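Inverse folding, one chain.
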């Protein structure tokens, strides 16, 4: 069965305390190669049947209304992954339509 992966991140203009904590930990552990870290959320929705335009439209609506808080987060990516793990389609944006 295919899966649809939805990635949600804090809005770029907002402080990310979790990301700041991870960045500090990386630095303390001697990993000086990174200038910043942002922590987001990933949702995997398993689809019964084929993924068509109607299913993708439904996922976009679910992502905007349920999976993210539009005041502080952006849905940054929606990707369809087939049973073999191949990415068969994706849409990326700061705010998906």
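Residues assigned per position:
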């Amino acid at each position: 069965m295919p899966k649809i992966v939805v990635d949600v991140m804090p809005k770029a203009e907002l402080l990310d305390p979790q990301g700041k904590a991870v960045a500090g930990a990386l630095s303390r552990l001697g990993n000086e190669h990174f200038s910043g870290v942002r922590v987001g959320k990933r949702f995997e929705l398993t689809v019964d049947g084929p993924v068509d335009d109607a299913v993708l439209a439904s996922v976009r609506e679910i992502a905007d209304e349920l999976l993210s808080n539009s005041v502080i987060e952006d849905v940054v990516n929606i990707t369809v992954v087939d049973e073999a793990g191949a990415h068969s389609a994706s849409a990326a944006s700061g705010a998906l339509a």
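Helices lie at 17-28, 53-67. The first strand starts at residue 3 and ends at 10.
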